Amino acid sequence: MTTRTDHRTVTFTKPFQLDGIDGPQPPGDYLVDTDEETIDELSFIAWRRMATTIHIRRNGTTQVYRIDPVDLDASLMRDAGMTVAPGP
C-alpha cells in the first residue's frame, strides 16, 4: 500500500468556522493536508482519502485539526459568495 500527502494553501477573505474547531477563525491563508492511500484490490491505480487536516495558528503555536473536506469546500464557497446547497 502506497500513501501520499497533498499539501495546499486555502485563502479565506472573511472569518470562517469549521466543525471540530472552537470558534470562528480569522481571514488568511491556511495549510490543508490531504492523506491518501492506494486501493490495492483494483486493476488500476486509485486513491482513497484517509484524512484531511488544517493548520491553525493561535497564540504563536500551530495546531492541526482533522476536518471534513466537504465542510471545508462549503466554507470556501461561502467565503467566495457562492450559494451552498443544504446537505442530505
Short recap of the structure:
By secondary structure, the chain is mainly beta.
Descriptive notes:
- There is one protein chain.
- The protein is mostly beta strands.
- The chain has one domain.
- Helices cover 12% and strands 44% of the residues.
- It contains one helix and four strands; from the N terminus they run E-E-E-E-H.
- The chain has one helix at 69-79, and strands spanning 3-12, 28-38, 47-58, 61-66.
- The protein has a four-stranded antiparallel β-sheet with strand order 1-2-3-4, with helices on one face.
- It is globular.
- The N and C termini lie far apart (33 Å).
**Major sheet attributes:** 4 strands, antiparallel
The strand line-up of the biggest sheet is: 1-2-3-4
**Over the alpha carbons, how many angstroms does the gyration radius reach?**
15 Å
Q: Considering DSSP H and I runs of 4 or more, what fraction of the residues is helical? A: 10-25%
Structure classification: mainly beta
Pattern of helices and strands:
EEEEH
Strand fraction equals 35-45%
Principal-axes geometry comes out as globular
Oligomeric state: single chain
**In total, how many beta strands?**
4
**How many domain regions?**
1
Mean residue pLDDT: 91
Features:
single chain; 88 residues; mainly beta
Topology, element by element:
Elements lengths: L2 E10 L15 E11 L8 E12 L2 E6 L2 H11 L9
Antiparallel strand pairs: 1-2, 2-3, 3-4
